[in-house]
Amino acid sequence: MVEAEYEINNVVLTVSYEDLELDLEKIASNLDEARYDPEVFPGVAYRTSKPKASFLIFASGEANCVGAKTVEGAEKAIEDLTEELQDLGFDVGEPEIEVQNMVASVDFHRRFDLEEIARNYHYAEYNPEVFPGLVFRWEGTNVAILLFVEGEGVCVGAKKKEKIEEAINRIEETVEPINS
What we know:
180 residues; TATA-Binding Protein; ten-stranded antiparallel β-sheet
């Protein structure tokens, strides 16, 4: 049996600078690649290229970091943002960081009979008129895998790489391959 392969495409983290009010106008006017239009959105959208990540920064001292492909890359981008905020005169200490979601694409190297899976697994949701993939969830976890007929999948909701691997293993162990 060929083992599934996966690649993490996006890591989402929350960033909290405790007890801090940020001047968003000052941030937007001093950081390249920063946009701020308070009539459209109440935060600064900021993009970095090395490492590649995007931020939504709020006046409350909270931020979201998305778009990095690794937790380490996201942490480096957050470290760089923290230094830039310090350079702008903000009294930011070490931020509190929490991984919220990891998104990974998966190649199972086999086809799936989505209708058969939906009939046999009560935690599988399949409505092809609405979405072409089957949503496979397990009780007691926020992790889900979207499965597609050709053998691709997308794993969402994991906060650790091990949870992605666990979900992939569950699919490989429980879902029967199509007999070709």
